[in-house]
Amino acid sequence: MADSQRMAKERAYQELVDAVVDLGYPEEFAEVLAHELGGEKSIRRMASYIRQAQPTSPEQIADEMLAIVSQRHTWVEKKMSEHANDSVTAFYNRPRKDEY
């Protein structure tokens, strides 16, 4: 990971920690959330949700984290499927020796 990406992820992590601690939960809870979310954008999205929605229980926070992870997983699967489809299409449309 490039230094700029690492720094961006660290800033996102700190935003999440600040949001979680501001609600009265321990920093360790934010660590678990960040670990499960994985990427910078997901972590920022979680921090934004916490700041805007002000959830009243750790279960609400965990549910949102699971929703974000699920949506990211769906997006990754979609992109993998699109890539596979593009590869098959390129294969079918390739020039063939018997067409010369």
Number of helices: 4
Order of H and E elements: HHHH
Low-confidence stretches: none
Number of strands: 0
- Helix content estimate: over 70%
Distance from first to last alpha carbon: 47 Å
- Give the C-alpha Rg: 20 Å
| Helical/strand content category | mainly alpha
Strand content: under 5%
What does this structure look like?
The chain has 100 residues and is mainly alpha-helical. It has one domain. The protein contains four helices and no strands. Helix 1 (3-22) packs across helix 2 (27-37) and helix 1 (3-22) runs parallel beside helix 3. The longest helix has 35 residues, at 58-92. It is elongated, with a radius of gyration of 20 Å. The chain starts with a helix and ends in an 8-residue tail after the last helix. The relative contact order is 0.10.
Quick structural summary:
The protein has helices at residues 3-22, 27-37, 40-53, 58-92.
What are its keywords?
4 helices, 100 residues, mainly alpha
SSE layout and pairings?
Blueprint: H1 3-22, H2 27-37, H3 40-53, H4 58-92
